[in-house]
Amino acid sequence: MLEEWGPLGPLAGEWEGDGGLDSAYSNSRGEVISTPYREKATFKPFGPVVNGRQALYGLDYKTAMWRESEENPFHTEVGYWLWDSDAGEVVRGFVVPRGITVLAGGFAEADAKQFTLEAEAGHARYAIGENQYLSERASTRHYTVTVILHEDGTWSYDEQTMLKMAVMDEPFAHTDRNTLRRAADG
Ligand code: HEM
Q1: 48: cis peptide before it, omega within 30°?
Q2: Does ligand 1 come within 6 angstroms of the Cβ of 41?
Q3: Has this prediction a pTM greater than 0.85?
Q4: What is the mean pLDDT of residues 55-71?
């Protein structure tokens, strides 16, 4: 079962989850609020991608989150997850269409059931890019995500995005977590 994809193999497919929880600063409310959400995600395997001696196997992914009754998602991502088996390196590159790109990385065993990826503003490898407005008003300084593959075939993520908001003195932890199960048509 997708052995070349290492710890990413179990993520291939179509997913959904309705137990998401977001904590963010709401500009319209002027306070930090918790928002439950539902999510649909698709992860499509591809590979190998060859860089000289390096061979990567990846998942082309997109995900979207909705508040309870909304028609349009309030958060989306597109990107790639990549596995380098020789280095044991997992990399996730994605775009948040607020004008943010993230390349988060970490190391794992091929059969890992849990792994953590990180990115930091200005890091030499795993870095964050953002538009001018966000760099001045709501700058993403650090990003980390932990993925857990459960025995029953579901998987969870728990992520923390540290934001330096102009309206707050201290960096603020914008957090998101959800558990995803295979969609009926996946
Ligand atoms: C499940 C994942 C996520 C959800 C559901 C989510 C949702 C939200 C929500 C509801 C807001 C508040 C917007 C407002 O009311 O003004 C927000 C703000 C923000 N999010 Fe996320 N977010 C997620 C992940 C991320 C990630 C991964 C990043 C960056 C790497 C990010 C960066 C930001 C930034 C910079 C803002 C501040 C915008 C501003 O105040 O001008 N978010 N997000």
Answers
A1: yes
A2: no
A3: yes
A4: 95
